[in-house]
Every structure is written in structure tokens, then in C-alpha cells.
Design a protein that fits this description.
The structure is a homodimer. Chain A is of the alpha/beta class. The first copy, chain A, is built from 16 helices and twelve strands.
């Protein structure tokens, strides 16, 4: 595999000491030729196609780290193929977790990455020195006028991004149009009265064939972004939709727990919700913050925030967006932990903070500004 | 929620006895309104939107089974929305596994299901009384003439379905066309010489926006089916592609281990690779057979085969397709275990069985016929 660009994938393997090497070799063959070593004799295939175990180190008791090199050409510059190459089949083998991924620049060059990312979104919002405040309109089942009112009041209070809850789904296009227009108009009205730039992101959810029409409508009425669920609709699909219609891509982590919470299987948190989402062109990566109603650890969150912003070829960084059971008292520590290039997504706690949502939003923004000054 | 059709979802919850009820209630709220109970007071939303914990039973020590009813209207007749509704957010909560799903006929009526399934595929092949024999051409990196020769020889031996290995990916459309035409022509030549009906299924892999063109080409040259990876490209996307171009949908389980092998998270095996794939219109569901190089249990495989064929509204059954480290000696027991409505996918073992692949294929088919007669 002499001059080829390489992908380096590190797997955490659950294995007895005498089987670790066999399993590492199994991964290298399974993910490339999908044949047992005895059946691969062509020197060119052994040289250019079969993965190479580059190192195997003991990790915590009962586990090993195997670093495997793959010819980057096998990813064919395609996101779906890359996912398949590094984790497709071995996802089914108990006790193999994808821990880290190093991608060569020649492969990264196939990906546009976040098209808005941190800088362009700041420009759109004209907010430069603090974390952004986002909220979700919900619950589903609420009358559209009430949802539009919530969006309006958040915008009136100066909030940055109001998105649909990912459970807000319409049965058909007319229902979608009615709801989205009402909320978009409400936010525009508030923006005119404040001179502000609050953005509203509807959730694009429909049968597959209808999604382009929905996206086109959203862009057509002047909205700048959408909420997508790449873990459900497919990462490369989400990438394509946002790029084709020039929409800011806020990625919701629905179903991502199947990867991140898969015990000894699955993918490391930052890899699943940072690196993969940047390749999928996400501009904002929503994740559940430690300390909320989910049970993520500070370490997992730090790994995610790092993966969102670390150097990755020429790809722009993506906003980490902690969410899930946030409240007013946690704003200052969250600002300290994640820093200014963060979107704080506050749902229920913001709705419950003050009967006047505009005033509650201002209180949260003051809290954020205060945290950044201290 | 009086007259509404209901989805019944059963979750396996890892919990101490005194927290099980809270977690069950958490699921019911999280998956619908995504708000804490204290913030939901609208009687209509409580009645029509919030999930209902219908039962909570102790399971094995440390675990409970919670059965939760959701208003089926919340799935909006969309596969992506259904997945989101039953497992989107709680996938991220450690120790919640989706164990079973009962879907009402009114929801199932939105799905066409397998368009070929068992009956129509048998008609196309004119094979009525035995399991089907399938193989994969591989490894990637092999010269196209050699891949075409393998496809040809399998067809010459009377094999039923030859598919691309899911690692066979081309960099561009011209490479795809060249490879697929060569293999299609080789299989057609063998069919003319045998009078047989061997089918060739290419793997549809490309950047999202290119896939329709690839599918159209495949159908245009008269091929009847494709291999798709719904776990990577998205279930509803795979459904749409196969339906739009009237292609038999052979579903590869790449990345599905993130669901099935997720320890105390994820989804039950038959649900992920049976029920969900039927909703995604798969005609054949490839899974790793117990006893092969992966470590699936007989119980998991039986659950999958059952989910592939059990009554599910008006949806046709899907072929279970055990694969992965199959060999000649396992053919008879596999036929006995899974019965005649099964596709046996034999890759490396068939290539290694006889230097003459046509002869090896005949030997496997004889073995299958013998197993069905005994």
C-alpha cells in the first residue's frame, strides 16, 4: 500500500489476550475483502486493498486498541462508502467499537463540510462574542398560532435560533406550509420590531420523495436553515439536502444513541456527533449535555466539542450544541465549559422560566453575556 | 386517546425498582412532547399526544419491560417519523432497548412493504420448492473480467442470485457502468446457455445525488434488483429508491450492529432486520447467521426469521437471508432451521469449495435440494 493515502481507524476490541490479534486481523479483512485471509492470495489485492493492522495495544483489562490502515481510495470520496468501510460489517461483531479516525487530506478534499459553520452563522446573526441561544417550539399537538407566538416571543427577546422540535411533523405539505409560514412570519415580525436577526429552522420531515419540495419551499420563503436527523434519514442524504438548497444544517441526534450508547460496540461520541456530522455538512451538532435528563459524561461532551472544532482538512468547524434538560443555573457553567463558539439549546426550561417568553429569553441572554464577561 | 389507533412499543429498561416507573414515564413524554410532565397541562395534549405507560413488568434482575402506547397519528404515515417516534431520543438514554413493536393496520396501510417478497421473486426465478442460493462477487480490487467470470460461472451452475459485495464501489458512474454491464452480460450469457433465470444485483453506492441515475441505469439494462444498505443510506431512502425504479431490494445489514449489538440499548434483532426492513420495502434481509464468523445466537436468528414472515398488516413477507461464514456442511442444518422460504447467501465458502465455481454451485444446489427432500 506504498504511495496510497491512508485512513487510520482505531478500534477498541473486547478480547482475551490470545484472540486480540486474530480479531484485529479479522477487522482488516472483513472491512475490505470480506474473505478469510486464506482465500486472498493476489499480491496486488493484499498490497492495495486489504487493511493493515498497524498496532495492537492493551487497553483497560479485557480490551485492546487496534489501529488499522485502510487505503483511502476504498472510500471512493463518498460519505456512505466511508461509513461502510470503517464500520459497516464489524458493527455486527460484538465488542468492536470505532474509537478514532484519521482521514487524509486527499479524502477530506471530497467533502465541503459545514457551509456556514461558526463564522458565516455569526455573520448572519451579527453576534460575535458569545454563545448563541437557541430554543425549540413544542410540544407537537400545540395549535399553530401558539407555536408561532412562541417563536415570535423568543425572537422578540433577542434569541438567536428558534427551531421546530423534531417531533413537530405534519401529515402533508399543506400542513407543513401552514405551520412554517406562520412561524416564519411571526419571527420576521419580531425581527422588524427589534431590528434583530433571529433565525427560524423548521424540521424537514416527510416521505423521502417529498423532502426536496419541502426544502425548496423553506428556502423559497427566505428561511436560512433547517433541522435534520442524519442518523435517521442518512448522513449523506442530510448533507445533500442542505447543500442543494443552501440551507444551514442543524443536526438533531435522533437515533444516534444506537452508535454512541452501544456499550462495547458503536462509535466514540465525538466521532459520531462531531467528525461524521462535519463530513455530513452539519453546521450545528445538537447533543445531550451532561447533567441533564440524559446521562452523558463531561468527558464525552468534551470529546464531542473537540471533534466539532479541531482541525479537519479544510473543513470548517461545526457548532457544538448542548441540549436536553438545560436550565438557568447551568448557563454560566456551560459557557465556561464550552466557550463562546457554542449554541446553547434550551427548550422546556426556557418556556418554564418566565410566563413572558420574551423576558425569559432576555434573562437567558443576559446570563450568557454575564458569563462571558466574568 | 380514546378512538385513536395506537402503536404499542415495548422497551426493556435497565433500572432499579424504584426508578423503573419514572423511566417508563420519561419515555412516554420524551418521545412525544419532549417536556417534563410538570410542563404539560393542556388536556388535549395529555389526551392525544403524550404516550401512555400501559404496563411495567419486572424482567430479568435489574431490568423491566415497559409497554407504551403512542397515538399512531404521530408517525404521520412516514417511516423516518415512525423510527423517530419509537426510538429517536431515547436511543441516547443508557439502558433503554426497543424490544417489540405492534403497529395498527391504519398505520401499516401507509406502507407498500416488499414489492417482490417471497411469491413474486419465486415467480421471476421459477424456483418454488427450495431455499434460494445466492453469492457475492468479490473481493473489491479484482479485475472486472474476473468478477464477471465469477458471476457467469455461478449462473452457469444454476445459482439464483449473484450480488455485488457491498465493498464493491466505483469511483464514478463510468466505472460503475463498465463493471455492472460486464457482470450483467456475463449472467445473461450463462442464462441463455442454461435456460435459467439467475438474477444479478449490483450494489447501489454513490454520492446521494447520483443514486437515482445509477438506479435508472440498472433498471434500464434490464436488471431486476439491487443491493442497498438501509442502515447507512437511511431506511426511507432505500424504500424510495427501490420503489421508484421498480427494483428488487436486497438489504445489506451494514451498520445494523449499531442497533442490534448495542447491549442494553438498540433494538431487538427481528425488529431491526425484520419489521423495519419490511416497512422499508426490503424483499430480502441479509443477516449474519449464527455459527459463522460473527456471534449471533440461534434465538436472535429465529426472532429475525419470524419477523420477516409473520403477519404484518397486508405487507408481504420478506426473505430472511442468513450469511457470513457459511459453508457446505451447514447447508442442511440451515435448510432445516429456516425452511424453504430462505435465501442462503454463501460467499467465500462457495468460492473455496471447488476450483470450478459452476460445479461448486451445482453441488450446493444439490445439497439444498437434498436437505428439502429428507
Amino acid at each position: 500500500m506504498a504511495p496510497a493515502a491512508l485512513i487510520h481507524a482505531t478500534y477498541r476490541i473486547r478480547a482475551l489476550p490470545d484472540e486480540a490479534e486474530r480479531i484485529a486481523r479479522f477487522i482488516a479483512y472483513e472491512q475490505t475483502v470480506e474473505l478469510p485471509p486464506a482465500q486472498v492470495s493476489d499480491p496486488r489485492i493484499l498490497d492495495e486493498i486489504v487493511g493493515r493492522v498497524q498496532s495492537l495495544e492493551p487497553a483497560e483489562p479485557g480490551f485492546f486498541h487496534a489501529r488499522i490502515a485502510f487505503n483511502a481510495a476504498l472510500a471512493a470520496g463518498q460519505l456512505s462508502t466511508l461509513i461502510n468501510l470503517v464500520y459497516g460489517n464489524v458493527s455486527m461483531y460484538p465488542g468492536i467499537r470505532l474509537q478514532a479516525l484519521q482521514l487524509p487530506d486527499s479524502l477530506l478534499a471530497h467533502f465541503d463540510g459545514p457551509r456556514y459553520g461558526i463564522d458565516r452563522l455569526r455573520q448572519l446573526l451579527d453576534v460575535h462574542d458569545r454563545p448563541l441561544l437557541a430554543t425549540a417550539i413544542k410540544p407537537t399537538g400545540t395549535a399553530v398560532e401558539r407555536l408561532a407566538q412562541l417563536a415570535h416571543d423568543f425572537a422578540l427577546g433577542g434569541g438567536d435560533i428558534v427551531k421546530d422540535d423534531q417531533n413537530l411533523v405534519s401529515d402533508d405539505f399543506d400542513g407543513f406550509r401552514f405551520r412554517v409560514e406562520a412561524c416564519a412570519n411571526a419571527v420576521a415580525r419580531a425581527n422588524r420590531s427589534t431590528g434583530g436577526n433571529t433565525l427560524y429552522f423548521p424540521h424537514l420531515a416527510a416521505a423521502h420523495a417529498d423532502l426536496p419540495r419541502y426544502a425548496e419551499f423553506v428556502r423559497g420563503i427566505g428561511l436560512r436553515g433547517v433541522l435534520l436527523c442524519p442518523g435517521i434519514i442518512g448522513h449523506d442524504h442530510a448533507r445533500d439536502l442542505a447543500a442543494r438548497f443552501d440551507l444551514i444544517h442543524m443536526a438533531h441526534p435522533a437515533l444516534s444513541g444506537a452508535l454512541t450508547q452501544a456499550g462495547d460496540n458503536g462509535m466514540e461520541f465525538g466521532l459520531a456527533l462531531g467528525t461524521l456530522l462535519r463530513l455530513a455538512g452539519a453546521d450545528i451538532s445538537v447533543f445531550v449535555a451532561p447533567g441533564g435528563r440524559f446521562r452523558f459524561t463531561d468527558e464525552q461532551a468534551a470529546s464531542l466539542a473537540h471533534a466539532c472544532r479541531e482541525s479537519l482538512g479544510l473543513l470548517a468547524p461545526v457548532w457544538p450544541c448542548p441540549a436536553g434538560g438545560m436550565d438557568f443555573e447551568r448557563i454560566a457553567p456551560l459557557c465556561a465549559t464550552y466557550g463562546k463558539d457554542t449554541v446553547l439549546l434550551v427548550g422546556g426550561a426556557l418556556l418554564g422560566h418566565d410566563a413572558d417568553l420574551a423576558r425569559g429569553t432576555r434573562a437567558y441572554l443576559d446570563r450568557i453575556r454575564g458569563a462571558m464577561e466574568s
